[in-house]
Each structure stands twice: as C-alpha cells, then as structure tokens.
C-alpha cells in the first residue's frame, strides 16, 4: 500500500466525494493509503507541499493563480467542487428577494478560511451589473463570530457556506436563506494542486490512481440520494442538524456541485476574470498555465 498524503484548507461538505472514497475504501482499491491533515492556519498547506509532507493540497484555485510568477508556481491537477458552496442569508423571509436588494446594504462575509467568499460574491455582483462598491462589507472575521454578530443585529446580509446558512435558518426563524450560490454557474471552487515540478513516473501513476478513486466517490454520491446514506452524513457532520445536511447534500447533487475531476475550461476562465477584476492577478491566466490535464486525461 502506497502512502498518499493530502493537506486541506478545511473540512467542508463540498469535499464529500473524497470523504466517501475514504470511508468506502475506494483509495485502498487503488493501492493508496490516503491520509489527510488540516493545518491551522489554513495556509500551512503551502508549507506541507514545500517540505514534502503532502502529495497534494486541496483548496481554492485562487491560491495557485495569485502565487504564480510572484512567489512560487503551483500546478492544478483536478477539481472536486464544481460550484460555489456559499449562500446569502437575510433578515426576514426570502420571498421577493433579488440580488439588487443588497445595494446600499452592509454584507458580512466570513474570511477565516481565505479570500474565496469575498471574491465570489463580488464577482457575482459584477456579473449581474451591480457595482461591488455600492455595498459595504465586514469581512475580516471568522464565520462563527460573524454569524453570531449578524443574528445579534450587525449588518443586513451574511455570506457563509450553505450548510451553516441552512442550519442558522433552521434555528432562527427571523432569518432566511435568500440565495444558494450553487445554482450560480460553474467555477472550479476546490481543486488539488502541488508545486510545479517535474513528476516522476511513480508520482504521476499515484495521482492517476488517486483520481480514479475520487471519480468513483463522485459517481457514488451522484447515484445515491442523500436520504439513503443519512447515517454516514451524521457521522461526517455531527454538529449540524441531520435534515439540513441531507437537504444541502441533495441540493448540491442536483445543482452540479460534483461532476468529475476535470477542471472545466469555461468555469476556469470565468474565475480567472473574477480574480483579475479583484486585482488578485494582473490578467487572466490561460488554462494551460495553471492546469495539467495529464492525470485526468489518462483515466
């Protein structure tokens, strides 16, 4: 059994196919002993890659894009999440909400796990003809703190992950989920990457086998209604009401959160435009500058 270690920026529902592949032995079927760590702070994933502790990092593609040609180059080999897992929470009922309602408001956005929340929400505003500068933001605090402050009266809206948003609305009848961003189009939200160095045949083979197992995990999740594996979801997310986990999982299944390990070109190009508009990159990178299709193409 070959050791294969992952370093991840967090523990999230949008990583579910990886967790299923681990629990169901799909990686072991490929001769891989997969282990996972989540460093704190999250940017410790880069240290894990640098010192050879990890074979791959799992996180946002904005990191390899932002670092390229400035600090260190990273290559993306595959994705796991094909859509944004965020949601927008508002006070009162969601009926009649349109995105233009946020103009002139204060939006709280968690940032403890990186910049992707603010990047995506502001990109979404621009795509809908809304100037992000027409909104005020509070985004330098972690999600739990901002969630408590929002429910206590701070701000008008709160952007967080869909699971936390639905759990909040379940507990608090004074708020509702106004928008689930999983329905807002393709974007390579969570990807696997490593430092840009030549791979040995053994490393490339291990990555190919890893992706075979991961694709099997994706297929398994897509083929099984979340109701049929409630017990597993309860084990994986014990701190969230189970009906909420089941509901969000089925929403993700239905709305294209998980498709395959291949990074979609149109989604990549969309995200690059968003990163450029946010000044994270000088101009959008071409697909081939960031993504290596070899491991996924070989399956």
Shape: globular
Strand elements, count: 10
Instruction: Quote the beta fraction.
Output: 15-25%
CATH superfamily of the largest domain: Periplasmic binding protein-like II
Distance between the termini: 20 Å
Question: What does it look like?
Answer:
By secondary structure, the chain is α/β, with parallel strands linked by helices. It is built from 13 helices and ten strands. It has a five-stranded mixed β-sheet, sandwiched between helices. A five-stranded mixed β-sheet has the order 7-6-8-5-9, with helices on both faces. The radius of gyration is 19 Å and the shape is globular. The model has no long low-confidence stretch (mean pLDDT 95). InterPro entries: NMT1/THI5, SsuA/THI5. Keywords: Iron, Metal-binding, Pyridoxal phosphate, Thiamine biosynthesis, Transferase. Pfam families: NMT1 (PF09084). It comes from Oidiodendron maius (strain Zn).
Element layout with pairings:
Layout: E1 2-8, H1 16-23, H2 26-29, E2 32-37, H3 44-50, E3 56-59, H4 62-67, E4 74-81, E5 86-91, E6 106-109, H5 116-127, E7 136-138, H6 143-152, E8 157-161, H7 162-171, E9 175-180, E10 190-195, H8 201-223, H9 230-236, H10 242-255, H11 265-277, H12 287-290, H13 294-297
Parallel strand pairs: 1-2, 1-3, 6-7, 6-8
Antiparallel strand pairs: 3-10, 4-10, 5-8, 5-9
Which tags fit this structure?
299 residues; alpha/beta; D-Maltodextrin-Binding Protein, domain 2; 5-stranded mixed β-sheet; globular; 4-amino-5-hydroxymethyl-2-methylpyrimidine phosphate synthase; pyridoxal phosphate; transferase activity; metal ion binding
């Amino acid at each position: 059994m070959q050791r294969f270690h992952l370093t991840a920026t967090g523990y999230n529902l949008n990583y579910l196919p990886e967790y299923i592949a681990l629990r169901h032995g799909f990686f072991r079927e490929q001769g891989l002993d997969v282990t996972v760590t989540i460093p704190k702070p999250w940017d410790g994933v880069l240290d894990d890659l640098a010192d050879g502790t990890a074979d791959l990092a799992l996180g946002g593609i904005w990191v390899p894009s932002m670092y390229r040609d400035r600090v260190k180059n990273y290559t993306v080999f595959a994705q796991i999440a094909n859509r944004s897992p965020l949601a927008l929470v508002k006070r009162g009922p969601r009926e009649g909400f349109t995105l233009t309602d946020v103009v002139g408001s204060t939006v709280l956005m968690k940032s403890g796990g990186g910049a992707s929340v603010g990047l995506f929400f502001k990109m979404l505003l621009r795509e809908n003809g809304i100037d992000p500068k027409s909104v005020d933001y509070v985004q330098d605090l972690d999600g739990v703190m901002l969630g408590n402050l929002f429910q206590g009266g701070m701000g008008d809206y709160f952007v967080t992950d869909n699971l936390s948003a639905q759990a909040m609305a379940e507990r608090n009848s004074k708020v509702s989920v106004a928008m689930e961003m999983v329905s807002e189009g393709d974007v390579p939200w969570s990807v696997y990457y490593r430092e840009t160095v030549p791979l040995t045949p053994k490393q490339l083979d291990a990555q190919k086998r890893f992706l075979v197992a991961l694709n099997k995990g994706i297929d398994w999740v897509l083929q099984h209604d979340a109701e049929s594996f409630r017990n597993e979801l309860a084990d994986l997310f014990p701190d969230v009401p189970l009906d909420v986990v089941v509901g969000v999982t089925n929403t993700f299944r239905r709305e294209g959160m998980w498709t395959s390990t291949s990074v979609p070109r149109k989604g990549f190009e969309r995200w690059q435009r968003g990163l450029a508009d946010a000044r994270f990159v000088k101009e959008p990178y071409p697909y081939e500058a960031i993504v290596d299709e070899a491991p996924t193409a070989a399956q």
